[in-house]
């Protein structure tokens, strides 16, 4: 995973030594954020079996997967973890999540179907 992060950081113009360091820091931060999220009171309500699935699948992906355009598709089996966001009973919170989901889909379609020059093929 750190090699993948290094490659992507280098691709956007970060020099190689800095991209390796930033890739490792990003990986540690990602793991810490997921750990804190899975130990939150909201995540505890989704059950131990789902949290263990998310941890196990996440470790598998970290071990064998190179980040690429299919990353979000590969992470879909971890989606039950998003159920922790639906725990609050506040209607405004839930409406905001639906609006963010729709905006995220529109943004993803915009990014994924971006036409670069004369290439009109889908990614």
Automatic annotation (TrEMBL):
Keywords: Membrane, Transmembrane, Transmembrane helix
Keyword flag Membrane: yes
Regions crossing the membrane: 20-43, 50-66, 95-115
The protein's name: Uncharacterized protein
Native organism: Pseudolysinimonas kribbensis
